[in-house]
Amino acid sequence: MRLFLDTASIDDIRAAARFGVISGVTTNPSLLAKEGGVSYKQRILEIAEVIDGPISAECVTRTADELVAEARELASWHPNVVVKIPIDAEGLEAIHRCSREGIRINTTLIFNPNQALLAALAGATFLSPFVGRLDDVSYDGIELIRQCVDIMTIHGLKAQVLAASIRHPLHVTQAALAGAPVATIPPAVLYQLLKHPLTDTGIERFLADARTAGLIE
Ligand code: E4P
Predict the structure, then answer these.
(1) What is the spatial distance between Cα 85 and Cα 73, in angstroms, rounded to a whole number?
(2) HSE (CB half, 13 Å, CA atoms) of 10?
(3) Cα(first)–Cα(last) distance of the chain, in Å?
(4) What confidence tier does 174 reach under pLDDT thresholds 50, 70, 90?
(5) I need a labelling partner for 30 at 20 to 30 A (CA). Which of 41, 56, 182, 212 fits?
(6) Catalytic residue at 84?
(7) At 167, is the pLDDT very low, low, confident or very high (cuts 50, 70, 90)?
């Protein structure tokens, strides 16, 4: 399983990169809007200097023709750019056309397994089911991940399920156990994954005993 960082914050990406566990980045217009007016292209290029892996940049146009033109532009920024396209009829056509041109697509805003199946058949590289937003409306987001992974596996489809809209560490564990090959996680969740109170108290106890044993001052 791979972990991507779900942010447009270059500071958060630089801080997380030191761990060596982040192999890609996902952005969206909402994440970019928090970045105080930085140009999208500039930010994607900054990210590409830090992370050598897929960097998702999202389209904001609505017709298939516009999406294809926008996808070509986003993909021209850097070879690691993966273009995010929302799943609807216009999006599906654009996914098909872009995939034929060799533009890698991350299909976003997936909320049911049939949307994932269609995107995979159209040639998408990544499928992004939104776990947290589905949980928010009383459906089981992790069950959607499981269904998407099963469909890809049963039918030998190459698209990778990218668990998105991750809100807490349990989502990460559950997505991993559901077989998601990738999860994209907010920076705060990355640090939460590290934490356990018994680890903290264990470190304190070993340090105290090391002092008693004269190993450290
Ligand atoms: C990433 O690709 C998605 O855009 C992101 O995970 C959505 O997360 P949210 O539901 O917390 O906005």
Answers:
(1) 13
(2) 15
(3) 41
(4) very high
(5) 182
(6) yes
(7) very high
- Per-residue confidence (pLDDT) for residue 108, from 0 to 100: 98
Ligand 1 centre and the CA of 128: distance in Å? 9
Burial of 58 (0-12, 13-18, 19+ CB in 10 A): buried
Global pTM reads 0.97
The dihedral sign for the CA sequence 115, 120, 125, 129 = positive
Instruction: From the CA of 164, give the closest atom in ligand 1.
Output: 6
Contacts with 112 (C-beta within 8 Å, 6 or more apart), sequence order: 144
Q: Please return the burial class of 107, using the count of CB atoms within 10 Å of its CB with bins 0-12, 13-18 and 19+.
A: buried
* DSSP code, position 105: E
Q: Which residues contact 41 (CB under 8 A, 6 or more apart)?
A: 77
For 141-149, what is the mean pLDDT? 98
Measured in Å, residue 79 CA sits from the centre of ligand 1 at: 23
- Residue type at 118 in one-letter notation: L
**Closest of 141, 134, 23 to residue 82, by C-alpha:** 23
How many angstroms separate the CA atoms of 129 and 34, rounded? 23
Question: Residue 194 CB: number of other CB atoms within 10 A?
Answer: 9
